[in-house]
Design brief:
Layout lengths: L4 E3 L1 H6 L6 H16 L3 E4 H13 L7 H14 L1 E3 L3 H14 L3 H12 L4 E3 L8 E2 L2 E4 L13
Parallel strand pairs: 1-2, 1-4, 2-3, 4-6
Antiparallel strand pairs: 5-6
Protein backbone atom coordinates (compact mmCIF):
# COMPACT_ATOMS: atom_id res chain seq x y z
CA UNK A 1 0.00 0.00 0.00
CA UNK A 2 2.96 2.23 -0.61
CA UNK A 3 1.98 5.72 -1.66
CA UNK A 4 -1.37 5.47 0.11
CA UNK A 5 -2.66 7.98 2.65
CA UNK A 6 -4.97 7.23 5.58
CA UNK A 7 -7.46 10.08 5.94
CA UNK A 8 -8.31 11.01 9.53
CA UNK A 9 -11.79 11.64 10.90
CA UNK A 10 -11.45 15.43 11.03
CA UNK A 11 -10.99 15.67 7.27
CA UNK A 12 -14.05 13.51 6.61
CA UNK A 13 -16.18 15.49 9.07
CA UNK A 14 -15.34 18.78 7.33
CA UNK A 15 -17.05 17.43 4.20
CA UNK A 16 -20.33 17.78 6.11
CA UNK A 17 -19.65 20.77 8.37
CA UNK A 18 -21.21 24.01 7.10
CA UNK A 19 -19.53 26.05 9.88
CA UNK A 20 -16.09 25.83 8.25
CA UNK A 21 -16.57 26.68 4.55
CA UNK A 22 -12.85 27.14 3.77
CA UNK A 23 -11.86 23.85 5.40
CA UNK A 24 -14.86 22.17 3.80
CA UNK A 25 -13.66 23.18 0.32
CA UNK A 26 -10.12 22.02 1.07
CA UNK A 27 -11.39 18.72 2.50
CA UNK A 28 -13.44 18.19 -0.66
CA UNK A 29 -10.36 18.86 -2.82
CA UNK A 30 -8.12 16.58 -0.74
CA UNK A 31 -10.62 13.73 -0.66
CA UNK A 32 -11.33 14.06 -4.40
CA UNK A 33 -7.62 14.00 -5.24
CA UNK A 34 -6.97 10.95 -3.07
CA UNK A 35 -10.00 9.13 -4.43
CA UNK A 36 -9.23 9.92 -8.09
CA UNK A 37 -5.67 8.66 -7.72
CA UNK A 38 -6.82 5.64 -5.67
CA UNK A 39 -4.35 6.61 -2.97
CA UNK A 40 -6.75 7.41 -0.14
CA UNK A 41 -7.82 4.87 2.45
CA UNK A 42 -10.08 5.02 5.47
CA UNK A 43 -10.41 2.71 8.45
CA UNK A 44 -13.22 1.24 10.50
CA UNK A 45 -12.18 3.55 13.34
CA UNK A 46 -12.44 6.62 11.12
CA UNK A 47 -15.89 5.71 9.82
CA UNK A 48 -17.12 5.08 13.37
CA UNK A 49 -15.67 8.34 14.67
CA UNK A 50 -17.09 10.21 11.66
CA UNK A 51 -20.59 8.87 12.35
CA UNK A 52 -20.40 9.86 16.01
CA UNK A 53 -18.85 13.30 15.52
CA UNK A 54 -21.04 14.29 12.58
CA UNK A 55 -24.20 13.22 14.39
CA UNK A 56 -23.35 14.70 17.80
CA UNK A 57 -21.13 17.74 17.18
CA UNK A 58 -22.08 19.24 13.82
CA UNK A 59 -25.09 21.53 14.18
CA UNK A 60 -27.23 21.44 11.07
CA UNK A 61 -25.10 18.56 9.90
CA UNK A 62 -26.24 15.44 8.12
CA UNK A 63 -29.33 13.52 9.20
CA UNK A 64 -28.96 9.94 10.42
CA UNK A 65 -30.14 8.71 7.00
CA UNK A 66 -27.56 10.91 5.27
CA UNK A 67 -24.86 9.56 7.62
CA UNK A 68 -25.85 6.00 6.85
CA UNK A 69 -25.67 6.81 3.14
CA UNK A 70 -22.29 8.50 3.54
CA UNK A 71 -20.77 5.58 5.46
CA UNK A 72 -22.04 3.09 2.89
CA UNK A 73 -20.86 5.32 0.04
CA UNK A 74 -17.37 5.60 1.55
CA UNK A 75 -17.24 1.83 1.97
CA UNK A 76 -18.06 1.35 -1.73
CA UNK A 77 -15.64 3.98 -3.06
CA UNK A 78 -12.72 3.74 -0.63
CA UNK A 79 -10.64 0.93 0.72
CA UNK A 80 -11.55 0.63 4.42
CA UNK A 81 -8.82 -0.86 6.58
CA UNK A 82 -9.88 -3.16 9.41
CA UNK A 83 -8.98 -2.62 13.04
CA UNK A 84 -7.53 -6.04 13.76
CA UNK A 85 -6.08 -7.53 16.95
CA UNK A 86 -2.63 -6.77 15.49
CA UNK A 87 -3.61 -3.10 15.13
CA UNK A 88 -4.88 -2.95 18.72
CA UNK A 89 -1.73 -4.62 20.07
CA UNK A 90 0.48 -2.23 18.11
CA UNK A 91 -1.61 0.72 19.31
CA UNK A 92 -1.08 -0.26 22.93
CA UNK A 93 2.67 -0.31 22.38
CA UNK A 94 2.65 3.01 20.51
CA UNK A 95 0.58 4.67 23.25
CA UNK A 96 3.00 3.43 25.89
CA UNK A 97 6.13 4.47 23.96
CA UNK A 98 4.90 7.87 22.80
CA UNK A 99 2.41 8.99 25.44
CA UNK A 100 -0.24 9.54 22.76
CA UNK A 101 -3.88 8.71 23.44
CA UNK A 102 -4.93 5.18 22.59
CA UNK A 103 -7.15 6.47 19.75
CA UNK A 104 -4.31 8.43 18.13
CA UNK A 105 -2.03 5.43 18.63
CA UNK A 106 -4.62 3.18 16.98
CA UNK A 107 -4.72 5.47 13.95
CA UNK A 108 -0.92 5.27 13.69
CA UNK A 109 -0.99 1.49 14.26
CA UNK A 110 -3.60 1.05 11.52
CA UNK A 111 -1.30 2.82 9.08
CA UNK A 112 1.74 0.81 10.21
CA UNK A 113 0.09 -2.61 10.19
CA UNK A 114 -1.42 -2.02 6.76
CA UNK A 115 1.74 -0.48 5.27
CA UNK A 116 0.38 3.05 4.80
CA UNK A 117 3.14 5.66 5.11
CA UNK A 118 1.05 8.84 5.47
CA UNK A 119 -1.81 10.03 7.67
CA UNK A 120 -3.74 13.09 6.47
CA UNK A 121 -4.93 14.97 9.56
CA UNK A 122 -5.04 18.41 11.08
CA UNK A 123 -4.49 16.89 14.54
CA UNK A 124 -0.75 16.33 14.16
CA UNK A 125 2.14 18.60 13.22
CA UNK A 126 2.51 18.83 9.46
CA UNK A 127 5.55 16.83 8.34
CA UNK A 128 6.05 15.12 11.71
CA UNK A 129 6.89 11.44 11.77
CA UNK A 130 5.81 9.04 14.51
CA UNK A 131 6.66 5.34 14.52
CA UNK A 132 7.60 5.60 10.84
CA UNK A 133 4.32 7.24 9.77
CA UNK A 134 4.37 10.76 8.33
CA UNK A 135 1.63 13.31 8.98
CA UNK A 136 0.32 15.77 6.41
CA UNK A 137 -1.93 18.62 7.48
CA UNK A 138 -4.43 19.00 4.64
CA UNK A 139 -5.12 22.58 5.70
CA UNK A 140 -1.50 23.76 5.77
CA UNK A 141 -0.82 26.92 3.79
CA UNK A 142 0.15 26.22 0.22
CA UNK A 143 -0.75 22.52 0.27
CA UNK A 144 -1.56 21.15 -3.15
CA UNK A 145 -4.02 18.26 -2.71
CA UNK A 146 -2.43 16.49 -5.68
CA UNK A 147 0.99 16.46 -3.97
CA UNK A 148 0.62 13.75 -1.31
CA UNK A 149 3.84 11.76 -1.60
Amino acid sequence: MAGRALVDTNVVVYLFDPREPVKRLQAIAVMASLQQTDRGVLSQQILSEFARVASERVPQGPTHQELIGAVLDFSRKWRVLPVTPAVIADALGIAERTGRSFWDAQLIATARVHGVATIVSEDFEDGAVCEGVRFVDPFADGLDPASFE
